[in-house]
Amino acid sequence: MLQIYNTLTKQKAPFKPLVEGQINMYVCGITVYDYCHIGHARVMVCFDVITRYLRARNWRVNYVRNITDVDDKIIKRAHENGETVEQLTERMIAAMHEDEDALGVLRPDQEPKATAHIDEILALISTLIEKGFAYPASNGDVYYRVERFAEYGKLTNQNVDELRSGSRVEVDEAKESPLDFVLWKAVKPGEVSWESPWGAGRPGWHIECSAMSKCCLGDTFDIHGGGPDLPFPHHENEIAQSEAANGCTYANHWMHAGPVRVNSEKMSKSLGNFFTIRDVLAKYDPEVVRFFLARVHYRSYIDYSEDSLKEARVMLERFYQALNGVSLPKSADESLDAGYEGAKAFELRFYEAMDDDFNTPKAISVLFEMVNELNKLKKTSESAAVALASKVLELAGILGLLQQNPDAFLKGADKEGEINAAAIEQLIEQRNAAKANKDYAQSDKIRDALAEQGVILKDSREGTSWFRES
RNA sequence: GGCGCGAUGGCAGAGUGGUCAUGCAGCGGACUGCAACUCCGUUAACGCCGGUUCGAUUCCGACUCGCGCCUCCA
């Protein structure tokens, strides 16, 4: 039984989709004015793992993640760069796709862009005005009338009076109330804009998600997700807009990923303490980064540091050491399960962990137990080892992990300025010759020399293999 | 000020009202020419103070500390 923590109710509850077997999920995506950082990567990987798992358990998932391709920051940045909004956003969308491809994040089923849904946005605003939940103001903006929506604040337990008194928002004369937020922003000179019944302008941030989710998934859908800083005000405002306009529940389950921290502070654009995905990928294998993110529960914070990345690398090495040398069949084969009865029990425990609000750390601990068993089986039963190893690969695949050739992962790619594979192989041959002559002084000298360059040798009955240490 | 979250062994990180997390590191063995890989064994924890209970790291309350949202931010 799948249980998911719901931000709305603040507790875990059994998950039940609107339509049996079908899950409609909307996740707030990126505002594309800069390269994605590790915090973005976390949300991407988190919902990628969730989608993969749900599909592995035979749910049909329609995963929609939007792209915000027009807003203040984009306009500002495009202007600074001397390029058009479209040039900037196209560039950043391409970069985002590169980053997520590297991390093994599967593309969402739909990636709607705000600028491609202006008609739906205008229609939604019209409905809100008709129903009295929104009003065009004297300055050309259209605002949402927050106090008209009785349930405002239900997602994050805010009450309107507290919000009003604690409001840090500058009072805008055009607004009826400081809490009101903008649905349609009147155009300023030199900005991109679209025509509307209320004058030229562009959509406010919150309305696009209400419009696009309605367009892609309907008035009510199963899961709405996003990053840690979105519940208030973004998601609160989405609820206000959609439920007022559509007259029904917006999303049944709200899921929010935890923050990535640096030195105990949230990694964020405004603090300037962020590391872009491409920066990190320049130093670490993408799978190491993915493992670093997956080994902590999705709702907890993660502290970003070089040490944690290195630790993630060491943990992956244990998996690949175990997998190395097991000759797996080319394609998945159910009959393999017969080779080792214990595989099924591990699988059940893995599912049990994932069914409990996607507990990836616990699921990974099961994989480690499987590795321990695998290492033992390798010494006793080839067929059982193959069966268990293929199960490890299958389950890890649900997390998007262990998809590389083990030997290639362990050896790593040749790098400029470091000893290359051919040179290593040559030294190993020299060492083996020395060993054959029982000239251990010489053979140890070669091994030590390689170790100094980060190359570790491993002798076995089959010969000498090597890997680069992390 | 309002609304939330967290505090677990040297580190990372799950979890549970009474018995094992898991990984890294450490220690002792096995394997090895010596190592590496691997295996076996092992050390070690539940912020502080009360309460409930036969029993609490786990439930309840207070406290301390840390963090997030309340302005754009995943």
UniProtKB/TrEMBL annotation:
Give the record's GO CC terms.
Answer: cytosol
Any one Gene Ontology MF annotation carried by this entry is: ATP binding
Can you tell me which residues bind ATP?
Answer: K269
Keyword field contains Nucleus: no
**Motif ('KMSKS' region) spans which residues?**
266-270
Please state which protein family the record places this protein in.
Belongs to the class-I aminoacyl-tRNA synthetase family.
**InterPro entries reported in the protein's UniProt record:** Cys-tRNA-ligase (IPR015803), Cys-tRNA-synt_Ia_DALR (IPR015273), Cys-tRNA/MSH_ligase (IPR024909), CysS_C (IPR056411), Rossmann-like_a/b/a_fold (IPR014729), tRNA-synt_1_cat_dom (IPR032678), tRNAsynth_Ia_anticodon-bd (IPR009080)
Entry's EC annotation: 6.1.1.16
Cofactor binding, note field: Binds 1 zinc ion per subunit.
Reactions that this protein is recorded to catalyse:
tRNA(Cys) + L-cysteine + ATP = L-cysteinyl-tRNA(Cys) + AMP + diphosphate
Q: Which GO terms describe its biological process?
A: cysteinyl-tRNA aminoacylation
Ranked from the top, the taxonomy reads:
Bacteria, Pseudomonadati, Pseudomonadota, Gammaproteobacteria, Oceanospirillales
Name its co-factor(s): Zn(2+)
* Sequence motif: 'HIGH' region, positions: 30-40
According to the UniProt record, what class of enzyme is this? ligase
Provide the binding site for Zn(2+): C28, C209, H234, E238
Q: Give the protein name, as stated in the record.
A: Cysteine--tRNA ligase
Q: Which residues cross the membrane?
A: none
Domain (Cysteinyl-tRNA synthetase class Ia DALR) spans: 349-410
Subunit-structure text: Monomer.
The family database entries (CDD domains) matched by this protein are listed as: Anticodon_Ia_Cys, CysRS_core
Intracellular or extracellular location(s): Cytoplasm
* Top-level taxonomic group: Bacteria
Q: What organism, scientifically named, is this protein from?
A: Neptunomonas qingdaonensis
Q: Which UniProt keywords apply?
A: Aminoacyl-tRNA synthetase, ATP-binding, Cytoplasm, Ligase, Metal-binding, Nucleotide-binding, Protein biosynthesis, Zinc
